[in-house]
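Trying the structure run again after the queue cleared.
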Amino acid sequence: MKAVDLTPAEIKVLEQRRSALGAIDCSIEQKNKLISGIRDYKGSEYGMTQYGSYQVLSVHGNSSLPVELEGTFTDARHITRTIDNLITEGKLIEPK
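Done. C-alpha cells:
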C-alpha cells in the first residue's frame, strides 16, 4: 500500500465520516438487540429477544452478570432455575 499525505481538511472529513459510520453501527446494533417483555425475578431483569430466546439484562447488586447468566436461554425457566441455584450457592443475594 502506498502512503498518502492528507491535508488537515481531508483528515477532518474522514474523522467525521468515521464518526457517522460508528453512530450507524451503534444504531443497527441497538435495533438488533431489541428485547421485549422485560420481567423481574428476584432482582434480576430478563426478557425475550426478537429471535425468541431469553437474555438476562441486569442483576440487582452486581455491576456485571455472573458467568452463569451470560448469553441466551431457550426458556425462561432456565433463567429462574439458574438464579435460584446462584442464590442457594451464595453467589447472588436475594433482595429483601
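Helices lie at 8-32, 76-89. Worth checking whether this holds up in the mutant runs.
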